[in-house]
Amino acid sequence: MKNTELLKKLCTAIGVSGSEEKVRDIILAEVEKIENTEVKISNLGDIIVLKKGELTPKKKLMISAHMDEVGLMVNDILEDGSLKFILIGGVNAEVLLSKRVYVNENTLGVIGGKPVHLMSADEKEKVVPIKELSIDIGALNKEDAEKYVSVGDVINFEPVFEADGSKITAKSLDDRIGCYLLLETMKENLPFDTYFVFTTREEVGAIGAAAVSPLIDPDFCISVEGTVAGDVLGKEGAEACTTLGKGIAVSLKDRGTLYDPKLIKLAFKLCKENGIKIQPRALSAGSTDAMYMHKTKNGARAMGLSVPTRYIHSPISMCFTEDIEAAERFLPIIISEILTDD
Hints:
Structural class: alpha+beta
Oligomer: single chain
Helix content: 25-40%
Strand content: 25-35%
Largest sheet: 8 strands, mixed
Number of helices: 9
Shape: globular
Radius of gyration: 21 Å
């Protein structure tokens, strides 16, 4: 893997949907170091980078990764000083209990529920619903809590990142992996002009992609993600969606996009020729920025490229460095091939 420290910076930055500023600052600082780039920022804070090559292709390629991550938001402060919350993005209640979180980045809290000693036998067998969870910041009462937090404050999971050479466990690998891959690919000597876009608010409906795609009007688009890997508890093949260690994952279909069959076949062909591990993203759950990129004006032929990642949309997830390395090798190859064969 080329730059573990850069991925660490990205993963430990706070960037819940709608509050992507810290992530954007890291990306802009990296882009400044890269020659032959032109940068624009949308009203929502999306970053549009045109990386100039030696040639201007007949058609446009837009590659995206989203800066935001799932999180929570304070929607009530109770009389005892505890905080109630709503979800930002798709988060299941079962991954929340007893997790450390930060309100407004600096007020530490713990997501709590009824103690196990006070639960009935039936309650112990069930996932505690979100409506019965609250965040404890150690406040004495509502008045005390209001010194530190307010309704509408964004709540993020504890920043965590560990790399041991073969695997990475971290917060927000979905989709800081994608942001990392776009930055590293931009540093390559690409032959053609290529648009790299870092979007906002993907986790709440790909809002950033919907806003900026018409500005570029691409003919081809690639969404780069950290995607679901369900290869645990004996799950294999299509049942697992993707598997760690089997290389990059190419999407066939999801809830927002039917990916281009010719680009899918091209990806498998190029990986075979270059000795890069590749697998299909075998299930159609979820969606990506491609749901809007591929519908602009005349339409764009879409590819979904992902790094398999366990436990996405939770406080901590896991991926293998070898799969990231496969994506690092593949992206410059597919860019050149798409724009040569236009």
